Amino acid sequence: MKFPSKVTPYKESIIAKFPLILTHLEKVDMDPALLYKKVKNKVDDIREYMEILDCLYALNKIELKEEVLHYVD
């Protein structure tokens, strides 16, 4: 996981990519595969995408209901 540090600038960290995922989910709920297709050119790989989803889930910003990602206010 790339968190901001002296070595990793904020723009290259996964925290900088949280809004990318959240802006899509604020508009409409999506399944993880469809969301990945929409953001795959803006994330490094599937591993980074999953790390972003893990962090957002741990922060209670998203939840998974019936195999669909849902934005939590």
Structural summary, described in words:
The chain has 73 residues and is of the alpha+beta class. Helices cover 42% and strands 11% of the residues. It has a two-stranded antiparallel ribbon. A hairpin with a 2-residue loop joins strand 1 and strand 2 (68-71). The longest helix has 13 residues, at 46-58. It is globular, with a radius of gyration of 12 Å. The termini are far apart.
Fill in the keyword field for this structure.
single chain, alpha+beta, two-stranded antiparallel sheet, 2 strands, 42% helix
Euclidean distance between termini CA atoms: 25 Å
With strands numbered from the N-terminus, the spatial order across the biggest sheet is 1-2
Cα radius of gyration in angstroms: 12 Å
* Shape assignment: globular
